[in-house]
Amino acid sequence: MRHCSTCPAWARCGITPDDYVSCLLHRDVTSESDMPHPRVIFRAPSILYKSRMASTTSDKATPQRQAELLQNLAETKICFTEASKSLSHAPTLVAVSKTKPAWMTRACYEEGQRDFGENSDIDLVNKAKKLADLDSLRWHFIGVMKKTEGDDLRRQARMRELTTVSNLHAIQSLTSTEDADIYNNAIPADRKAPLNMLLQVNTSGEVQKSGLQYVDTETEAADSPLFKLACHIIEHCPKLHFQGLMTIGSQTESLASSERPNQDFETLKKTRDVLEGMLRSNPTFDGRWGDNGKLLLSMGMTADFEAGLRAGSHIVRVGTGIFGARRMK
């Protein structure tokens, strides 16, 4: 029997004695001969351990593959529920299927999962068409449509097509007033409710990550692109609703989140507090942002969603932990 030596905490019995257990993030694996159970799926705070899902070579709709998928969904929900016990609000688990086939989304839906996310707008639109019969499904777009030279018109067309998905619940990655205007003008007239918008904040300072600069004080926020975008949505985009903030934390903070608070999540909370104070000071904004006067936070993914929930997240986004390793196109 083997386990990842980097993560000391483990729990829950599992499958068969011969399965190899490895950590999704760590590759330092050591031998362990005196485990009390013949087979253990290890689980440390912030780290999801998988055996078969990480090594599955096919996403064909076989009984075995579906059983693996549903087992991972069930295990994720157990951990989600446990980590949510101290919260005063009911958080949302978004299952992010990325490159996985539509049958997996349907299988999870049939097990009671309702919120699903996609990094690719093309995948989201295509899956939405295939799964149009699932009335209660809610889509979250969490990806970025990057601007490329000479491709702006095509990008805008994709943005407009995304808004035609009737059960698109939220876009969690908005970063510009230009994109806000495109989305607002593209919303179909028959849409029943404004489209929720979460602004992506770069809390780690990593140049490779998208997102607007976080803020620490109201003075700093007054002229910030983040606050200006929030006000722009509220004042000029009636078909959009400024719901909250999203961040993707650094791997360093993710790996340390079992030992101490995740600083990227703390930074987002501070930014939230600053923005809420400024929005509340403007009486014309009453009831036009957030959820019951509070901005929602979307923070936490497969490796650190429990830390996100402990930090007070309203939304966590779990992909690999449910669907298995992402396939590169």
Structural features, described:
This protein has 329 residues and is an alpha/beta fold. It contains twelve helices and 14 strands. It has helices at 52-55, 63-83, 102-110, 121-130, 152-163, 177-186, 218-222, 225-236, 251-256, 263-280, 305-310, 320-323, and strands at residues 2-4, 22-23, 29-31, 43-44, 47-50, 92-96, 115-118, 138-141, 168-174, 195-202, 212-213, 240-246, 296-298, 315-318. α4 (121-130) packs parallel to α5 (152-163) and α5 packs across α6 (177-186). The protein is globular.
- The overall pLDDT average reads 85
| Spatial extent as radius of gyration | 20 Å
Number of strands: 14
Number of helices: 12
Overall shape: it is globular
Query: How much helix is in the residues?
Result: 25-40%
Strand content: 15-25%
Give the SSE string.
Answer: EEEEEHHEHEHEHEHEEHHEHHEHEH
Main beta-sheet strand count, sense and barrel state: 9 strands, parallel
Uncertain runs: 1-57
Terminal CA distance reads 34 Å
* Sheet/helix structural class: alpha/beta
Secondary structure layout:
Elements: E1 2-4, E2 22-23, E3 29-31, E4 43-44, E5 47-50, H1 52-55, H2 63-83, E6 92-96, H3 102-110, E7 115-118, H4 121-130, E8 138-141, H5 152-163, E9 168-174, H6 177-186, E10 195-202, E11 212-213, H7 218-222, H8 225-236, E12 240-246, H9 251-256, H10 263-280, E13 296-298, H11 305-310, E14 315-318, H12 320-323
Parallel strand pairs: 6-7, 6-14, 7-8, 8-9, 9-10, 10-11, 10-12, 12-13
Antiparallel strand pairs: 1-3, 2-5, 4-5
Helix pairs in contact: 4-5, 5-6
